[in-house]
Amino acid sequence: MSPGDFSLTEEPVLSRNALSRDENRRLDPGYVRDTWAKARVVVVDESGRTPVDWEVEPGREFREVDAAAWDDAAGRGGHVRTRAGTDVAAEPPAEAVLLGEREGVPYWAVRVGTERTADSDIFTGEGEWADLRAAGAFLDPLGSGLLTGAVATLNWHDRARFCAIDGTRTRPHDAGWARVCDNGHEEYPRTDPAIICLVHDGADRVLLARQPVWPAGRYSVLAGFVESGESLEACVHREISEEVGIAVSDVRYLGSQAWPFPRSLMVGFHAIGDPDVSLTPQDGEIADALWITRDTLRAALARGDWGTRDEPDPTGGPVVMLPGKVSIARTMLESWAAAGG
């Protein structure tokens, strides 16, 4: 085992999925046609929101509850509110997406406009309209899989209405998992891979950085998109060098998580860097970068998702705010913090 090696202590929250996908069912016209009568449908508005039911302790908002405290077996958590397929339409809408099946129940996703959410009884009632960034960390595994898959595929449909080869209009095909243009060219949902890397010194320090658009004091681990013809590991070396000006070694895979904003896949790694090498933040990309100790990181994690810089750090280190639990970055940081003595 290499110095400072560790693994994720839990699955990234948007990787949780209780849904069974089956490509053969998407390609079966009979299944697609007949399944609508018993389907449940996830409705997603133009802002990526869907109705969510929250079961929380009296007087507490869901955003105030530590995700680790949710107990799905006890009925506490967030649940995506689905609708009967026949309540949405008599047959699958042209741009509906067959997400998968669970315990014999097929699940679909449809995009709805904001005017429908306000005017139709189908979309009203108890529940709160929430998106993945706000709600993803608190959803049960079924809800997480449903909303992540729905947002990712519907985002792709919104951006794939014209053929990349000849410019003609495309139409949905294969239960929403392909689009075909007037000349028969097929296109499939795009996923843009990106690496996200926790750089540490092999001992007790971790490297954090801040983008210029983030609030002062908010830091995370480094990330960047994979370029054409580039391996994931090569991207780790390039991105770290470009963004903070240091070389890393011993690149190790940690895990992955969908990040459909609009269509990314975050592939997590950790690597070793030298804290004695001067950091050179990339102009326009990184506003600031710094090394902090494991104890300082633990203090930041203890402040929770909504901790602020107004709370002093008991270790005497810099006060930093960290990414929320919906991000794989949070899982990576929590796992590294837990790995030390």
From TrEMBL:
GO MF entries: hydrolase activity
The keyword Transmembrane helix belongs to this UniProt entry's keyword annotation: no
Residue ranges of domain Nudix hydrolase in the record: 189-314
KW Ribonucleoprotein (keyword) present: no
Region feature (Disordered): 1-21
Keywords of this entry: Hydrolase, Magnesium, Metal-binding, NAD
Superkingdom, taxonomy of origin: Bacteria
InterPro entries named in the record: NAD-cap_RNA_hydrolase_NudC, NADH_PPase-like_N, NudC-like_C, NUDIX_hydrolase-like_dom_sf, NUDIX_hydrolase_CS, NUDIX_hydrolase_dom, Znr_NADH_PPase
Cofactor(s) the record lists: Zn(2+); Mg(2+)
Catalytic activity: a 5'-end NAD(+)-phospho-ribonucleoside in mRNA + H2O = a 5'-end phospho-adenosine-phospho-ribonucleoside in mRNA + beta-nicotinamide D-ribonucleotide + 2 H(+)
EC code: 3.6.1.22
Enzyme type, top EC level: hydrolase
Family that this chain belongs to: Belongs to the Nudix hydrolase family. NudC subfamily.
Protein name as annotated: NAD(+) diphosphatase
